[in-house]
Specification:
By secondary structure, the protein is of the alpha+beta class. It is 47% helix and 15% strand. β5 and β6 form a beta hairpin.
Length: 189
């Protein structure tokens, strides 16, 4: 409390009230990191989590992740970076499980329609089926990008000199199936 003199009298001024924190959190805390991981493990995307006014922005989280990569092991930000990867894997596993649920859910695949005479009949709900297909396709595509174990594998196959097929990983260089003698005789002529 401050004191001030006014017309010879001493008056006491009240201290200014503490300012309320405004905006989203920008400083990393272990508690905040745990909240983010829990929500990710439950299936929420980082975009959905960051829509919450009590959560930091995506750019803040990305900065924490970048800083966590260069930190020493055992630091809070390094642990955050490692746990974020693990939470993404759990989220992907949940998404994988959703694929089966979407495929097995036939609840709205048929709908009831009314004829002009007032009688009803059941017909295929093509819009719902297409929407379910889209939902499944998007999840499959995301899974192929999120976790390599769900992605498409490109396996190149070549034959050895005895005609046995051999898989080649990565970028392959294909050699001619001609023998050394055939190759050299082509050069000579």
């Amino acid at each position: 409390m401050k004191t001030a003199k006014k017309n010879g009298a001493v008056t006491k001024k009240k201290a200014a009230p503490a300012k309320k924190k405004m905006g989203r959190p920008t400083k990393f805390t272990v508690k905040l990191g745990t909240t983010i991981f829990t929500r990710m493990c439950e299936g929420e995307s980082l975009r959905q989590i960051c829509r919450d006014e009590k959560m930091p922005t995506r750019s803040s989280i990305h900065l924490w992740l970048i800083r966590g990569v260069v930190c020493e092991k055992g630091t809070d930000l390094k642990n955050f970076s490692d746990q974020y990867e693990l939470a993404n894997e759990v989220r992907a596993e949940n998404m994988f499980d959703e694929l089966t649920e979407i495929a097995d859910d036939g609840e709205n695949d048929y709908m009831e329609r009314e004829r002009p005479d007032g009688s009803t009949f059941e017909t295929v709900n093509a819009e719902h089926i297409q929407r379910s297909r889209l939902r499944a396709d998007v999840r499959k595509w995301k899974l192929s990008k999120m976790l390599k174990k769900y992605g498409d594998k490109n396996i190149h196959v070549t034959e050895d000199t005895e005609g046995n097929q051999m898989p080649i990983a990565g970028n392959a260089i294909t050699f001619s199936s001609q023998s050394d003698n055939q190759l050299t005789s082509d050069v000579d002529s």
